[in-house]
Amino acid sequence: MEIYFDNSATTRPYDEVASAVFDTMSNNYGNPSSLHKLGIEAERAVKTAKERVAAGIKANPSEILFTSGGTESDNIALFGTASANRGRHIISTPLEHPAIINTLGELRERGYKIDYTPVDSSGKVILKDFERLIRPDTFLVTAMIVNNEIGTIEPIAEMAKILKSVNPRAVFHTDAVQGFGKVPINVDALGVDLVSLSAHKVHGPKGMGALYIRRGTKIKPIIYGGGQQQGMRSGTENVPGMVGFGIAAKIATTDLGKKIERMSALKERLKNGILNSIDNVRINTPDNNAPHILNVSFGGTKAEVVLHSLEMQDIFVSSGSACSSHKKEPSYVLTEIGVPRKMIDGSIRFSLSEFSTEEDVDITIEALKKIIPRLRKLNLK
């Protein structure tokens, strides 16, 4: 029996998605730019996919730009906004995904000033400190909705409101890759201008993403060519991927409230089971966080050893963000919120999905009850 608790890294595609992608590749293979029947059918499929993704975040389909994934969406948001605006100042948080952190690093190399707003011990932005950072030349703020390592939900609506009250022309971008399909997202309620999404985090195909661009937002393309997607992203459209993303978005956001409640209950069951049966444990995930992420430090262990010990029992977890798990440096997210280095070394991220079950949780707890004491004894030798 396979237990998959690494859904923040990627998800198993819905059966409906896999079938639709295969069917589109086999039968709807026309180029959406072609004027004949097959092209028109492909164009229709793209239109339907945009409508479904847009509905998931309460946006207009004309404001959806399909991309190759969350990383490209983030790059378009940052580089495209920088190219279209005169300002030189950007504000972000120190807990962002590497797709943001490293892109900001490149912008700094190009002469832009980057400030990182302080966060508290739960990873949440301190709003008063954020407001103090806003300057007349601040043209962009970028902050994720849900942190991919610890599950903190950032006060995006409050941040956007503060930004617009101080500097109405500034653009607010949020990386919603970990939030989409896990927390409700309404672009108007949030007050944001740009939103990055990824298909494979919501049981869709890999290599597919989207960027919501509010109408009127000043942004330029970073890819040039045949002028597809209103000139914002040239290149022949990945119709099967778009179709798959559209179906995944529709399923993932249907009955979202019930899915959130169920995942939250399973996460609490896992957390309490760990706390009640294993000592020297630190829960790094704050209260009132995303429903699917639980980050736990097991003192006296090495995360990689715990991970592989669980893997031997067909339980799959992560030792941190999948996009940086091969690096030897300690997690910058856990470091920023004050987790001691020794506890960081033993941190494991469990990330659930709508497919997770109570049986999965209970089996994992029983496995940890045997694995952790055994590994601690080995470390003492």
From TrEMBL:
<keyword id="KW-0479">Metal-binding</keyword>
<dbReference type="GO" id="GO:0031071">
    <property type="term" value="F:cysteine desulfurase activity"/>
</dbReference>
<comment type="similarity">
    <text>Belongs to the class-V pyridoxal-phosphate-dependent aminotransferase family. NifS/IscS subfamily.</text>
</comment>
<dbReference type="GO" id="GO:0051536">
    <property type="term" value="F:iron-sulfur cluster binding"/>
</dbReference>
<dbReference type="InterPro" id="IPR000192">
    <property type="entry name" value="Aminotrans_V_dom"/>
</dbReference>
<keyword id="KW-0408">Iron</keyword>
<keyword id="KW-0411">Iron-sulfur</keyword>
<dbReference type="InterPro" id="IPR016454">
    <property type="entry name" value="Cysteine_dSase"/>
</dbReference>
<dbReference type="GO" id="GO:0046872">
    <property type="term" value="F:metal ion binding"/>
</dbReference>
<keyword id="KW-0663">Pyridoxal phosphate</keyword>
<keyword id="KW-0808">Transferase</keyword>
<dbReference type="Pfam" id="PF00266">
    <property type="entry name" value="Aminotran_5"/>
</dbReference>
<dbReference type="InterPro" id="IPR015421">
    <property type="entry name" value="PyrdxlP-dep_Trfase_major"/>
</dbReference>
<protein>
    <recommendedName>
        <fullName>cysteine desulfurase</fullName>
        <ecNumber>2.8.1.7</ecNumber>
    </recommendedName>
</protein>
<dbReference type="InterPro" id="IPR015422">
    <property type="entry name" value="PyrdxlP-dep_Trfase_small"/>
</dbReference>
<dbReference type="InterPro" id="IPR020578">
    <property type="entry name" value="Aminotrans_V_PyrdxlP_BS"/>
</dbReference>
<dbReference type="InterPro" id="IPR015424">
    <property type="entry name" value="PyrdxlP-dep_Trfase"/>
</dbReference>
<feature type="domain" description="Aminotransferase class V">
    <location>
        <begin position="3"/>
        <end position="362"/>
    </location>
</feature>
